[in-house]
Amino acid sequence: MKLWPAALVLPERTLSGAGIINQILAECAAFGRRGLLVHGRSLARHGTVASILSAAPAGLQVTAWQHTGGEPTLEDLAELLQAARQQRAEWVAGVGGGSVLDLAKACAGLFHAAQPLAAYHAGAALEKRGLPFIAAPTTAGTGSEATLNSVLTDTDLRIKKSMRDPQFIARLVLLDPELLRHCPPAIIAQAGMDALTQALEVFTSRHATWLSDVVALKGVELIAANLEAVYRGASAEEALGLLAGSYLSGVGLSMARLGVVHGLAHPLGLRYQAAHGLVCGICLPHAIALYRAAMGGKYAALSQAVGADLLTWTQGLGERLALRSPFKGRSLNDKEAIIQETLASGSTQANPQPITAADVEWLLEQLF
After folding, report:
1. Which of 69, 112, 257, 328 could lock 128 by a disulfide, CB 3.0 to 4.6 Å apart?
2. Where in the chain is the domain with CATH 1.20.1090.10?
3. Spacing of C-alpha 364 from chain mean position
4. What is the Cα 1 distance to its own chain's centre?
5. Residues with Cβ < 8 Å from 306, sequence gap 6 or more?
6. What is the per-residue pLDDT across 47-99, written as a single tens digit (0 to 9) for each?
7. 125 and 165 in contact (C-beta within 8 Å)?
8. What topology does CATH give the domain 14-178?
9. Can you give the pTM of this predicted structure?
10. Where are the alpha helices (DSSP H) in the chain?
């Protein structure tokens, strides 16, 4: 195990508590008078956007931009950047799920971008510091509020991948359990499985350190303790516990990368238009079975964190959360391309057991 992460990049400040979302624009005002508020459809439908805007300090100029839904693309980012530049924004705030936060984060980081967006998606470095990014998650899933990753799809090349840069990290994060109140149970379940998968993969990553282990294992523990309760409808305390677990999974991701589930989830989700968290939840038990031996003593630690045998508990959790496979009964298309994209993924390369083409093929056989 490594002694210390190669890079330790954390959100500058994190605030938590019920109702704290109403302070977001007052906090944003410290970064400038003009800003962009990026949100999803449900946030507007339930009146949360109007409530946030009504609490804006006098003189603050805020433009609200609504993501229409679905996995975020470079085209979405281009539209958002155009809105931000027209506003002459001095900061970008994202209040939403992982897609909203990834778009807002990339918009802030790439505000001064000089090259085509596809170049940065392909790995080009940012030439100039972007705008402050402020994040408030409305799902407990990707941990995007705490990461330096933005996962976007290039629809021309049919590639879904992460852009990573320290400048993408949030200057401020707000964790408000009330934001989970209107989240449908199915989304709670799918997002929660993404967070659980992230925390587990961070803990078992070949890039793990003692620090990422502490963070990730606590994340697993918090998610295991609170996910089902929040799925059924829970207290603010349990919702905050789930948000905290998701946040820790994101902190750990930035330190240690992930594993084969995320390596496979991107090419599968792109081709089958399946929700990322659902794909992770369906894949996770099979991946645990595949590389359980490579986890060594960490398997026992994870079992202790969830309060049962890890594999058995994970299989049962999917049933209790009513996860339904988006793959069963469907044909497997582009198998060789999926295998090669999975093997090329940085997530797969961080897996504790080196993954072969035969391993990916075995996982696909379990899914289809």
Report:
1. 112
2. 184-367
3. 23
4. 25
5. 220, 221, 224, 313, 314
6. 999 999 999 999 999 999 999 988 899 999 999 999 999 999 999 999 999 99
7. yes
8. Rossmann fold (3.40.50)
9. 0.95
10. 24-28, 41-45, 48-54, 74-87, 98-109, 117-121, 185-204, 210-232, 236-256, 260-272, 276-295, 298-306, 310-320, 335-344, 346-349, 357-367
**What residues contact 354, with CB distance under 8 A and at least 6 apart?**
none
Q: Write out pLDDT tens, residues 225-237.
A: 999 999 999 789 9
* Ramachandran region, residue 32 (left: φ > 0; alpha: ψ -120 to 50; beta: rest): left
Non-local (6+) Cβ contacts of 234 within 8 A are 226
**Which residue spans of the chain are classified as CATH 3.40.50.1970?**
14-178
- Domain 184-367 in CATH 1.20.1090.10? The answer is yes
How far apart are alpha carbons 323 and 107 in whole angstroms? 33
Q: Residue 295: what residue type?
A: M
Hey, is 224 helix, strand or coil?
A: helix
| Closest to 100 measured CA to CA, from 124, 57, 67, 142 | 67
Neighbouring C-beta atoms of residue 83, cutoff 10 Å: 16
